[in-house]
Design a protein that fits this description.
Layout lengths: L2 E6 L6 E6 L8 E11 L1 H7 L16 E8 L11 E4 L2 E3 L5 H4 L10 E2 L11 E5 L4 E2 L6 H4 L5 H11 L7 E5 L5 H10 L3 E6 L5 H6 L4 E4 L3 H6 L4 E6 L8 H6 E9 L11 H5 L4 E4 L5 H13 L6 E5 L3 H9 L6 E5 L2
Parallel strand pairs: 10-11, 10-13, 11-12, 13-14, 14-15, 16-17
Antiparallel strand pairs: 1-2, 3-4, 3-8, 3-17, 4-5, 5-9, 6-7
Helix pairs in contact: 4-5
Bound molecules: zinc ion (ZN) (2 copies).
Length: 335
């Protein structure tokens, strides 16, 4: 049976109804009936071919929640009817050093859910079952969907860069990613500072878990946090002067990029050298990290703050994401 989806047929084009015949279900594959799919900024980048990897027709969508409707002959860990989530990655080679050490998100042969494959703006999808992660009962499908890309993107660095409750953490940008990073950092037990160029976000940032708020246009306030933070995660996709944030780090501190500024990041090495500071970046997370992240989110009542639209209103929903007027994450629902 054909899968009903929404596809862009050209760069920057509106999405239109599109049907395709799925590939045969492989032994490790599952087919999901999609209930919800979040919209991530990466979907817009794909539609616009910003990364020069897009091919059309392009079905975006990589924050998928659905139930298993059929499973391949080798699938033992998922049952028909079970609720699962799929993020940016739909499969990996499973035999390289990265896969064998549980770091599937670093596999050179990984396949993206909606780049080179048809994604989650659809009624169904087929993916490798090992990349379909069970959703804990405590999480609603609507709030869980954005965790599958946005959530793991900000959670994974906390695990891999050894953030601990003893640390003071900064979050730059209070948007789709940042509002999740604040919740995770607070639940980790850290002292949390939110940085935003929008002064009006101060009270909401505190609601999401920030102990402190710094308006980044206030140079004096930015200077006042110098030497106080152990770890800063940048969630903003904007260019800015990064040196005040390097200065905000304590010795051994790290500035980690999960948002991607358009221009190269440039800081004087001397700002890093004396305090042995570093700059890092981090892509999504492995299936096991996603499992841990969902478990942690369920235990600490962490979820995305969402706006929901029916799947048929995908173009209106995309426009709101493009205009940056969503507070804080858009989710499409199949009704
Ligand atoms: Zn994403
Ligand atoms: Zn691999």
């Amino acid at each position: 049976m054909e899968i009903k989806a929404f596809a862009a047929h050209a760069t920057k084009a509106d999405l239109k109804p599109f049907q395709y015949e799925p590939k045969p279900l492989g032994p490790f594959d599952v087919e999901l009936k999609i209930s919800h799919c979040g919209i991530c900024h990466s979907d817009i980048h794909l539609i616009d071919n910003d990364w020069r990897i897009s091919s059309y027709p392009l079905v975006p969508g990589h924050e998928i929640v659905g139930t298993v409707t059929s499973a391949g002959t080798m699938v033992e860990h998922l049952k028909v009817g079970q609720r699962v989530g799929v993020g940016w990655q739909r499969s990996a080679c499973m035999i390289c050093d990265m896969c064998m050490s549980g770091q599937h998100n670093l596999c050179p042969k990984q396949q993206a859910t909606c780049a080179g494959n048809f994604g989650g703006f659809a009624d169904r999808i087929r993916v490798d079952s090992r990349f379909a992660i069970p959703i804990p009962n405590a999480l609603s499908s609507e709030t869980a969907a954005p965790l599958l890309c946005g959530g793991i993107t900000v959670f994974s660095p906390f695990m891999n860069f050894g953030v601990s409750p003893l640390h003071r953490v900064g979050v730059i940008g209070i948007g789709g990613l940042g509002h999740l990073a604040l919740q995770f950092a607070r639940a980790f037990g850290c002292e949390v500072t939110a940085f935003s160029h929008t002064r009006e976000k101060a009270s909401e940032a505190r609601d999401f878990g920030a102990h402190h708020f710094v308006w980044t246009k206030d140079a004096e306030k930015l200077k006042a946090v110098a030497g106080t933070l152990d770890f800063i995660i940048n969630t903003a996709n904007a260019d800015m002067d990064w040196t005040p944030f390097i200065e905000a780090l304590r010795p051994n501190g790290k500035l980690c990029f999960v948002g991607v500024p358009p221009s190269p990041v440039s800081v004087p090495v001397n700002y890093l050298l004396g305090g042995r500071k570093s700059i890092a970046a981090s892509p999504i997370g492995s299936p096991e990290e996603i499992r841990k992240m969902l478990d942690f989110a369920a235990r600490h009542h962490i979820g995305a703050k969402t706006e929901m639209r029916p799947m048929e209103e995908v173009n209106e929903a995309l426009k709101k994401v493009r205009d940056n007027t969503v507070r804080y994450r858009m989710v499409l629902a199949n009704t």
